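Q: How would the structure tokens look for this protein?
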Amino acid sequence: MISNDLAEGLANCAREPVHIPGAIQPAGCLVCVDNALQQVLSVSANIAEILGVTPTEAFGQSPSQLLGPDLLEQLASRLELDDSLPLTLECQYQTDTFEGGLQATVYQSDTRWVFEFEPIVSVPEQHSLALLNRWIKVLGRTQSVERLLFRLIEAVESLTGYGRIMVYQFDEEWHGTVISEKRHDALESFLGHRFPAKDIPPQVRALYSVNPVRSIPDAGAPAVSLLSRAGSRDAPIDMGPGYLRASSPVHLRYLANMGVGASLSVAIFSEDNLWGLLACHHGTPKALSPQIRDTLLALVQMASQRLFLLESRGQMRYLKRVMDSRELVSYSRGHLIRPDELIREHGKSWLALFDACGLALMSRFGVSRLGITPDDAVLKRIASGLTAGNRHNGPWFTDQLTDHMSVTTLVQGDDIVGCYGLLALPMNVESPPGWFLLFRQEQPRTHRWAGKPEDVVVEEEGRKVLNPRHSFATWVEEVRGRSRPWLPIEVRAALDLAEDLAIAVSVNHIAHLNSELQSVNKRLESLAHTDSLTGVWNRYHLELSIDAEIKVAHRYQRHCCVLLFDIDHFKQFNDQHGHEAGDRVLKTLATTVESCLRAGDRFGRWGGEEFLILTGIDPKGAELLAERLRRKVEEIDLGDLGQVTISIGVASYHPGDNRKQLVARADQAMYQAKSEGRNRVVSSL
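A: Here is the predicted structure in token form.
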């Protein structure tokens, strides 16, 4: 239990309005005007240092007089071409206090226009462009994630000279770990150290989606207040899209305790998810030209694309191994192999694929297990708890089995024989469902924290707030009772394998009932050929159909084409709306696609959010069909769930093709469609 003071401090920290501090950093000045560009509403107190007029004089001028008509004309011209904000403009100013170029970052807060002005440090454009191009080539040649991140850090050092540069990756609890680092000898190393989630609270992480760059050139410089014209009652200015936003006093104390005089952070996104940060520190204040800052953003974005390309290549190699294993299960379905025989024949390869210590297949035929698992009685109690608590019929997984009361109330700690990780996949062709269980043993971990992650509460201005830790010396935590976490791609792959196993078990059961219960046999036959959620053909039926059509195409020189597609960003859709909404989308999509097909076309669910169409039309006709389906899906009205799109790969039969080769070309075309932006058709004819 946490104390009331700590609970209040945590709540106040989470509510701190960091986007509306009412002040800026002194690296530039700010002017806020009304939506019609007729009246100056707010200015920073230091405006005279850059624009050469006092706040009082600024309020007496129109925006055109204060900012100059050339800048406003630039703004109007840019908005005609692209109305996305923020915009970056450049202008020249000559006043009694300043002469030179300024970069203006322009954005809106409510209906007001905000102009942030920063002096442009003289950096030869050719120099920064040449460096950027050189490093882009270097990053593009890297073949490992580790090498890529270190090369990125070297590039940032060459462009900025920061004393410590790190890549900081978030985990599922938003704790961050430094996974790559380069530093000057005088600065402490944080490589391999963890930072608690509260160091970058939720509202700060959210701001990186608004502006991926956060720069603090002088952490010790006093903030500059914003002044409003007399009688103004405007809401505080939301400075999230800009660069000059003043920092929270708590964060400035945090940097001071760390010995940091200047910092720069650039967000690394995996699609729409914040994956980590490029974090730069310097022991003393360090000015950064806006041009170099923009160059760094371009460099990080390019490196991010390379990073996730390398990760996706690894995932594709892994999925290929899983697919090969599934092919063996598909082959076994034609030979009436019992579950215990499947386990004996393929179980060791599954343990290796999923880095598991043991597995169990629980079906109407009983319990079949391999490796290190709880005994049968404990497994049955676990399965009972899972069946009672799994309302969405989806996978259930944990790396802390003893901490999940829905399951562990049924078992004792000693019963799990060190199996702290569990990935449980329901086999829904049975009622009650069978289960495919994968176990992982405890993996003791040593966490090296950058300072002890304790919460110290102090009172400021009558409010309880968290006080940043004073020491960042290594604090070691030994973590027990947890396994290696299950990766999303492992869960997805195991779910697909479990569906194949469910069908194999079902087919076996059908064979045993065939002579006794003809009506039951017919129902189970249907289950073996149709997808239980959408009602369309399942993978087993599609594989049989492809094999048959290939034989016909070869013998009679007929056309045979495969359309393979999946739903774009479906994981994020499920994360946002839940699995029930995801199931509704799958069923709606299946119904829509079926309505567009000819009687002779075969359509089914290939696995997860992937679907496949087998058609006997010519390649050009297959392309037209794919485009028609893409548009039809894009037009589906899902109400408050928004819109979904699909990426389609098309492949036609070539003489000598087998099923695996034909589907592989369609799969490759589909991934090309995704890499080119999704919601499109790509052919491999």
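The radius of gyration is 30 Å.

The chain has four domains: 11-19+122-222+247-310, 20-119, 336-444+481-511, 535-684.

Upvote if useful.
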